[in-house]
Amino acid sequence: MRASPVPITALLDALPEKRVLGALPATVSGLAYDSRKVAPGDLFVAIPGLKQDGRRFVDDALARGAAAVVLEGADALEGRPTGRVLVPSSRAALARLADAYFGHPSASLIVVGITGTNGKTTTSYMVDALLRARGLETGLIGTVEYRIGAERVAAGQTTPEALELQGLMRRMLDAGVAALAMEVSSHALALSRIDGTEFDVAVFTNLTQDHLDFHVTMEAYRQAKRRLFELVAAGAKPARSAIVNADDPAGLSMVADLPLRTVTYAIRGRADVRPARWSSGGEGIRMSVRTPVGHVEIASSLVGEHNVMNLLAATGVGVALGMAPTDIAVALATVTSVPGRFERVEAGQPFLLVVDYAHTPDALERTLETARKLVGSGGRLGVVFGCGGDRDRGKRPLMGAIGARFCDRVWITSDNPRSEQPEAIITEIVAGIPGGLAVDRHETISDRKAAIRSALAWARAGDVVVIAGKGHETYQIVGTDVLPFDDRAIARAVLREIGP
Question: Are 446 and 488 in contact (CB under 8 A)?
């Protein structure tokens, strides 16, 4: 999406630190950070990326008609008349420029951002339901999809790059959207993608091990999450709130020393939003929630303690938005399922089959803990899972240990192996399985479809089988190839083949 030509002064005003050199045009027709997408009259932002350095492609961008360039650090065009803007961080500059270029769209939207290791997607769907219950046209940005009113757009990243993010919000405004629920990933925070975005409410779900291939340490990971709340605190909207999980050790650190109205939620600890009583079984969750505005009586078809926490987080958002307890309860009851999140697959089989996105140690433990409680009398629990290639290797043995601890049988297979050998990943997962456990309780099958077939052939009446790791995904990444693969579709096809 491209807006009308914008005065370059309007864009430069958005940059707090800059040095302007050369002759700049009066207006720019667009923004680009990929030289291959530059159109005549664009402002090209050269980003030193994780794999490519955009500064290497400045000449290509100029050849394609770029009117000026934004550069990080030293002047790579010294001695040339080309108009350029030197900034401390071109990523942060791109976010501010995109916000200005598209007319500061988030300032005119109600924006709720959700961050945390697990629970972002489900909580975002709950927040979307709350916003719709207020009679608002809504948008959604997250792992499963981007949604502009009724229009659905395939999601490339949990939180898109800054230029795409601001463009999406502009499209939302133009389509009549008034409120947005957005998942905010730690990558997006660390890479400044949401700089310039104005939030009304920010939510923290939890912090557990993931993405250490990128952040390296848990402290750096925590600091990335906290950055959302720092940005909200520095925002210009008159009423800004934080909703934080007080049961999580990192929860209160998200808002420490920040001037934000904070609503805490918890199951076990003291909090503003907490259940007086709750239960979770095969029919769903029932709980009575104490809040600063009265009791909220929740009846949800979702299951598991992790979804109790998600419901409490969403209830906190409802409180922050000024909703009545009954309106919060009615809205949350409409969220009956979320794609790839403890999603039941039915094909007439006599056992329960669940597909879940659990791809971290904490998420896998919570999913299997929930599944174990749903096992019938005399039944067994089985899980099929792998770990993604080119990602945090430290969690692999942890997940192997968790699978073995909760399940009667474990199938260890491929997830998205990417550039790694599937067998090497599987070996690292198996290393976490305690040696005292019987060998016949786990099986390694690198072909994910074959592993699913083996698990479903094993299952009998009263059993529960969980296929974990990919959830809503409709692809598998092997090397550089993106191949069609949907756990749910594969499972249904296998069930039809093997029969009841």
Answer: no
Sequence-distant (≥ 6) Cβ neighbours of residue 295 within 8 angstroms: 276, 288, 289, 325
pLDDT at position 50 over 80 = no
Q: Which residues in 49-69 are b (16+ Cβ under 10 Å) and which e?
A: eeeeebbebbeebbebebbbb
- The closest alpha carbon to 209, from 368, 399, 470, 388, belongs to 399
Question: Which helix H or strand E contains 121, and what residues bound it?
Answer: helix 120-133
Q: What is the dihedral of CA 428, 434, 439, 440, to 10 degrees?
A: -100
Q: Region 337-362: what's the mean pLDDT?
A: 96
pLDDT at 210: 85
User: For residues 280 and 371, what is the distance between their CA atoms, to the nearest angstrom?
Assistant: 11
pLDDT in tens, 94-146: 999 999 999 999 999 999 999 999 999 999 999 999 999 999 999 999 999 99
pTM of the complete model beyond 0.85: yes
C-alpha span between 76 and 292 (Å, rounded): 56
- The whole-angstrom separation of Cα 476 and Cα 479 is 10
Q: Which of 3.20.20.70, 3.40.50.1000, 3.40.1390.10, 3.20.20.10 would CATH assign to domain 6-101?
A: 3.40.1390.10
Q: Evaluate whether 6-101 and 105-271+302-324 have a shared fold.
A: no
> Would you call 399 helix, strand, or coil by DSSP?
helix
Q: Map out the domains of the chain as residue ranges.
A: 6-101, 105-271+302-324, 343-498
Give the CATH superfamily of 343-498: Mur ligase, C-terminal domain (3.90.190.20)
Residue 20 has which token pair?
A: 């302007």
Give the homologous superfamily in CATH for domain 105-271+302-324: Mur-like, catalytic domain (3.40.1190.10)
**What residue type is assigned to position 12 of the chain?**
L
How many helices and strands, by DSSP H and E, does the chain display? 15, 26
DSSP 82: B
Report the percent of the chain where pLDDT is more than 70: 98
